[in-house]
């Protein structure tokens, strides 16, 4: 995978560069952890030093698929979906790369950490939401789905738990491409 933008470089992230790893939740087929990524992702090219500069310590999400004793084809298909689609479209949660827990051999996706999912957002803001804001949220979700479909893929497991909100730029992204796949492939 090639990128001309430093913040879109996909990389192998040594597990030793991750700190404060904490269990967050369990999804349908994965466990989700939060962590701090020491040095963080690449941010920009330093023309004087002639090297990529890093952002600094960043909060990230680690996603480990359950019941995968050894990496299998479906795990790599999810990784491929995340890496290909998320680094092309800002409307899909960015995946920075992969890591491996040396204590158990589990591979994990390293992903951008957003603030909350749509379910929690609606619970906290239900009485404050204007119709204009509701329509805007719907528009952003549709736009993200459009980009996934533009890649000839279908999400296959869209629900409020994997539509995520960023307070930083007041935007919505789609995550959890675990069932995402080619539009012409059955979902069995």
Description of the molecule:
The protein has helices at 73-86, 118-125, 131-150, and strands spanning 11-12, 18-26, 30-37, 42-46, 51-54, 58-65, 95-100, 107-112, 116-117, 153-154, 163-166, 171-174, 181-182. By secondary structure, the protein is α+β, with helices and mostly antiparallel strands. It has two domains: 6-112, Phosphorylase Kinase, domain 1; 116-182, Transferase(Phosphotransferase), domain 1 (Orthogonal Bundle), CATH 1.10.510. The strands form four sheets. The chain has a six-stranded mixed beta sheet, with helices on one face. Strands 9-11-12 form a three-stranded antiparallel beta sheet. Strands 4-5 form a two-stranded antiparallel sheet.
How would you describe this structure in keywords?
188 residues, alpha+beta, Phosphorylase Kinase, domain 1, Transferase(Phosphotransferase), domain 1, 2 domains, 6-stranded mixed beta sheet, 3-stranded antiparallel beta sheet, 3 helices, 13 strands, 22% helix, 33% strand, globular
Chart the SSEs and their pairings.
Elements: E1 11-12, E2 18-26, E3 30-37, E4 42-46, E5 51-54, E6 58-65, H1 73-86, E7 95-100, E8 107-112, E9 116-117, H2 118-125, H3 131-150, E10 153-154, E11 163-166, E12 171-174, E13 181-182
Parallel strand pairs: 1-7
Antiparallel strand pairs: 2-3, 3-6, 4-5, 6-8, 7-8, 9-11, 10-13, 11-12
GO biological process, one term: signal transduction
Pfam family, one: PK_Tyr_Ser-Thr
Protein name: Kinase-like protein
Task: Summarize this structure briefly.
With 188 residues, this protein is an alpha+beta fold.
């Amino acid at each position: 995978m090639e990128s001309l933008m430093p913040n879109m470089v996909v990389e192998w992230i040594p597990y030793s560069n991750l700190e404060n790893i904490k269990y967050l939740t369990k999804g349908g087929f994965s466990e989700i952890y939060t962590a701090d990524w020491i040095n963080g992702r690449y941010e920009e090219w330093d023309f004087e030093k002639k090297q990529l500069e890093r952002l600094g310590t960043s909060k990230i999400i680690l996603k480990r698929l359950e019941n995968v004793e050894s990496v299998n084809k479906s795990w790599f298909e999810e990784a491929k979906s995340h890496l290909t689609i998320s680094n092309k479209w800002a409307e899909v949660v960015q995946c920075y790369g992969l890591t491996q827990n040396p204590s158990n051999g589990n591979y994990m996706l390293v992903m951008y950490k957003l603030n909350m999912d749509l379910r929690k957002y609606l619970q906290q803001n239900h009485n404050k939401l204007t119709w204009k804001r509701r329509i805007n949220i719907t528009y952003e979700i549709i736009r993200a789905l459009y980009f996934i479909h533009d890649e000839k893929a279908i999400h296959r497991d869209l629900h409020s738990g994997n539509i995520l909100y960023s307070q930083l730029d007041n935007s919505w992204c789609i995550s959890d491409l675990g069932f995402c796949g080619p539009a012409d492939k059955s979902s069995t």
